[in-house]
Design brief:
two-stranded antiparallel sheet; globular; about 160 residues; alpha/beta; single chain
């Protein structure tokens, strides 16, 4: 059991590299947040299911939204993504991947609940598999301290 933090600058191709790496792995679960056709999506690695994360027309929606920077995300989509991650924790994958941990999680939103549970789970020395978190370099230290991550390795390539 290990915790890896994949960290590089914003817009440096982390999710693209991560997707290519994930496609070469076996028994991998988790959520990626690729940009597809100009908006953020969630990709369930287990089922290869893609669903909207970002609301691109906030004035014409009646769904709950959480905003961070220039992004407006569907709360229901994060609930679904967190549910996928919590189920994955019980399946003992070789890899659990969460892309990405950032400002929302520092505010107790986004993936916060599942990230906190995953860190607690993968801190157990008897836990099978590894946890991979994506964190932009400018937030890396803050995320590590806020989530009290111990015994981790920061990597910049996969």
């Amino acid at each position: 059991m290990s915790i890896y933090i994949f960290s590089r600058p914003i817009h440096s191709g982390k999710t693209t590299e991560l997707l290519q790496w994930c496609n070469r792995q076996k028994n991998i679960h988790g959520i990626l947040m690729p940009d597809i056709n100009g908006s953020r999506k969630f990709l369930n690695l287990d089922k290869k299911e893609i669903f909207d994360a970002e609301c691109v027309d906030i004035t014409n929606t009646n769904l709950s939204i959480t905003s961070i920077g220039k992004f407006n995300f569907y709360m229901d989509a994060f609930e679904k993504a967190n549910s996928i991650l919590m189920r994955a924790l019980s399946r003992n994958p070789d890899w659990l991947v969460i892309d990405e941990v950032g400002k929302l999680e520092l505010g107790g939103k986004g993936f916060y609940t599942s990230v906190a549970e995953a860190i607690k789970t993968y801190t157990d020395k008897n836990k099978k598999g590894d946890l991979l978190l994506t964190v932009r370099d400018s937030l890396c230290e803050e995320v590590i301290v806020f989530l009290n991550i111990k015994n981790y390795k920061i990597i910049s390539s996969l």
